[in-house]
Amino acid sequence: MASERQDVDKEFDEWKEKHGKKYKSKEEEAKRKKIWLECRTRVIEHNKKYDSGESTFECGMNHMSDLEQHEVCCGVRRSCQEEKNDS
């Protein structure tokens, strides 16, 4: 179990390096890692369906894998409220 956690920690560190991710605080990094782990789980579960022929496409992790849904929608630097106010 500890080895699996170390492997996931290493995977997260490698992903951060690949995508140039740096966080302002330990709390922010913990939040982003939690989101990343949830995304990773969804990708793994989806790809099991792909492997078994239940899906026609494969998923992967990308530079947005540590973002919440509203951040993907509106962009990291703008909140959805700012987006609405510009309209």
TrEMBL record:
Highest classification ranks of the organism: Eukaryota, Metazoa, Chordata, Craniata, Vertebrata
Cathepsin propeptide inhibitor domain residues: 12-72
Protein name: Crustapain-like
One Pfam family, short name: Inhibitor_I29
SMART domains with a match to the protein in the record: Inhibitor_I29
Transmembrane segments: none
